[in-house]
Please model this.
Amino acid sequence: MLPITTLHFLVVAAALFVLGVIGVLTRRNVVIVLMSIELILNAVNLNLVAFSRIWGLHGQVFAIFVITDAAAEAAVGLGILIAFFRNKETVNIDEVDLLKW
Amino acid sequence: MISSIIAAALVQTRPPADMQPVATPFFFYMLSGLMILGGLAVITRKNPVHSALALIVTLLGQAGLYLMLYAPFVAGVQIILYVGGIMVLFLFVIMLVNLERTQQEKSFNKQWVIGFAAAAALGVMFVSVYVKGRALFPELPVAPLEAENTQRIGNMLYGNYMFAFEIASLLLLVAIIGAVVMAKKRI
Amino acid sequence: MNDPNARTSVEPIPEEKTFLDASELVINMGPQHPATHGVLRVILKLDGEKVLGLECVIGYLHRGIEKIAENRTYTMFNPYVDRMDYVAAVSNGLGYCEAVEKLLNTEAPPRAKYIRVILTELNRLASHQLWLGTHALDIGAMTPLFYTFRDREEILKIFEKYCGARLTTHAFRIGGCQYETYDGFEHDVRNFLDFFTPKIDEYEELLTTNRIWVRRTKNVGVISGKDCIALGVTGPVLRASGVKWDLRKAQPYAAYKEFDFDIPVGENGDTYDRYLVRMAEMRQSMRIIRQAVDGLPDGPVMAKIPKVLKPPVGEIYHSIEAPKGELGYFIVSDGSTQPYRIRVRPPSFVNLQALDVMCRGALVADVIAVIGTLDIVLGEVDR
Amino acid sequence: MLNYITSYLDKTVQTTPGQAGNLFWALVYILFVFGGVSLAVVGMNWLERKILAHMQIRLGPMRVGPHGLLQPIADAIKLILKEDIIPANADVAVFWLAPLIILLAVFSVYCVVPFGPTHAITDMNIGILFMLGVSSLGVLGIVMAGWASNSHYPLIGALRSSAQMVSYEVAMGLAVVSAVLMTSLNPTGTGTLSMIGIVQAQYAQHVWFVFKFFPLGFIAFGVFAIAMVAETNRAPFDLPEAESELTAGFHTEYSGLRWSLFMLGEYGAMIAVSSIAITLWLGGWMRPFPNLLHGAAFDLAFSLFPALTFFGLAAMTFYSTAHMPKHPFFRLQTLGLGAFGALFALIGFILLIPQVFQRVQDIFWFIAKIAVFMYLFIWYRGTFPRYRFDQLMKVGWKVLLPVGLGVLVLTAIVGVMA
Model:
């Protein structure tokens, strides 16, 4: 087998990113859309850490910031989701069509 | 300045002679296969709980890849924060909002064709970038010193990235308040 | 059945939006549940962990004891009352015998009355021990259960020696006691008192100052004295809410007039006060027993009553202070050998009404604590 | 191949098999540790029932084997043979996975538990981080079990327990950080997250961290000790399994073998968190008073401890063998108890061999410390009532968290001053 190079990791990250994009664009369930966003963020993280093997530890530090960001995003996103669910009794993103309730 | 840091990093990242990871290609292919299968399951499962579990598999696989990239600290943070924190939050919310009705509905929206097309285009773009720009990625099969990883990340967080670190803490504070405001019935 | 909304002293379930508006969670607790003390079924309406209201479903242990009475003679019915509150069988028998005696216009001889007091108070101790053990177990403290059962055993031994039965004793007869005390009865009772005095301290050592116990019971299941009276709640629950009402003092029966004892009273009407009141009551019971044993008079134990009981036409209500509260018997006689109708006022049944009031706004865990503190026996609730 | 195997035993290799990259010995260690933990869980089961019984003035298991010694085996057989019921509307896949995830989380923790300077499967640079992370995976198993059962009681139990574990993890993490901070109090100023490194730091600083900066280390240890009881869902924090309220919490719908896996996970987690506490604050594998009572004589005396312990156990067993009823009905039981005594004595004699006790005494001290913690767990269960859920949260967030933070800050300040 070939030795594993940075490019290998980048390919995996790209695949994850594409999967995440598909999830965001096509799913109706808000929870799964949020999870797809997590997939995208993780793909980015994998890229950052893979590059940090070449360019020093800055990538890893950035990955930690991205994880922090993901935590904040998940908390607020799920909070919004609960508020939305309480008002409309649904978690379908198609029905998020009100500007105010 | 940055170049000097990079140079210093490169100097310090000489692989230790006696530390040869075992069966790296095998583990790499296994983990990345698991991750991609998990990612597929995330976007295809009808039941959000199953999606979340698949996402957990993906995240754990990714922690494995981090270890393989000699980033043990990020791997640990990934497990603690993502798997132990964020995903539990997800599961919690799914349980709260889980409706039988949701599972009877269609799980893909109307513009799924366009979505797939866009994602495919993105994928093609990635492939072309990687094929064309292969030379841009220097291949250094080097292993940075694992032993000092945590320490040096700590130094960087409280040195170069002090400001960003503080901003991140502020962001988390805002997120906490935001989440509470959003989720509470009455304030 | 209990309609939670028909209460006067309870505010109605608020119309706020609950549990993400999906639905309020309705949980069915029992009839097969470790903490409902038998076959009580409680339907809980929850908002998350908060109790919005609850409904007790009873009748799983209904045996029609009151109806059976109509087909038995007065004497034959006597053992049946033991099966109502089976952990305080002696008290049940006392109440029934005294009621019929009142109907017959006779009275038990003084020695019989003293023996009755001794056995009833011993039974009160046994009942409170059982309550303490199960209540602590419900709140999560396992060990007191075994301690109380060890000590309860000594009381049951005295019962066994006296009348041959441990649980459903049928200790008393109409007109007195059937048996003279056995040799060494007084010695046994005194021995028990000496044995048991430090044991109460042992229980209190485990629980009274235990921070977790205090936190679990303070301000839990609060009920005001006014609500208690409105709901007809009696016994230690009433006294813990600050109402000094004890039938042993208020309407002395048996020989209680002759003994010196206090009525322990609580202040806040919460679970912790009920615990303290019952603990104090145990000590008072021991005081009464000691006085009774010391002053046990000589004489017959059975009054002169006819072989065939034919009470005059009329009706009578007689109530005593059972360990759980006011135990009343309402007997209607048509002059025949069999009662026309017997109606029992069981303390557990009436006290159970307060469950809804005490649990509104509390958490699920508090419901368990409150059921425990009410000290209900389903045999008595359903009869 | 043989060379590969023996090379690790070479005296010059002073490291764990994981770090030496020796797969064979790593596997052997894994088998030893996992087998040992499973055995310890079985033993714990018996001990808990016996100790609790004696606290509650009863005898506990007495029928299967002498003094019920074979009771755990009988229980295991019963559980394995029991029908495995899966509720009709359960999510079968998740229902299957949940106990396995809990087991996985618990047993992965043991990868980095240092039973001695070289007696660990491996040593990671992020050892303590790894332990906290992996043990937090157990929450997932609980949530999955509660959700997959498709029933109210398990769901409430799972929500309770996951909320509880997530909350107490915060306090636990803070306490751990203050211990990690103490490792950096050396001339170079570099701390370590590695489990072995933490114990070595205590060795180098000549103090167990529980006594360091008294009372700071002690308070941090206390915070951890409370949080770890909550983390493992044991009394008085056993709300998820509050029998009187939620029947059995998240594993209400489980039966037979699958239920026993949950039990294995619970007891395994108890041992795991105890070993974290021991490693961080109680000097890991080090014997008591390594600097106060040092010198060759003390070394020898302490290294004879393992053998003496087993001799003591043997003496106790022989004593009760002699006091068994003389009735022929008890002959088999008496013989069995005697056999147990002989086994203990044999182990004691083996431990007298110098080569053995020198290699084993680290492990012995570690296990002895774990045993103390296990006894505490049982003691709590015998003494305390159960907290209510909101009170539990209050303790976690309003007491342990501020105390942990304060200790962390104070430790940092004192550490800089020192």
About this structure: Residues 95 and 133 of chain B are 45 Å apart (CA to CA).
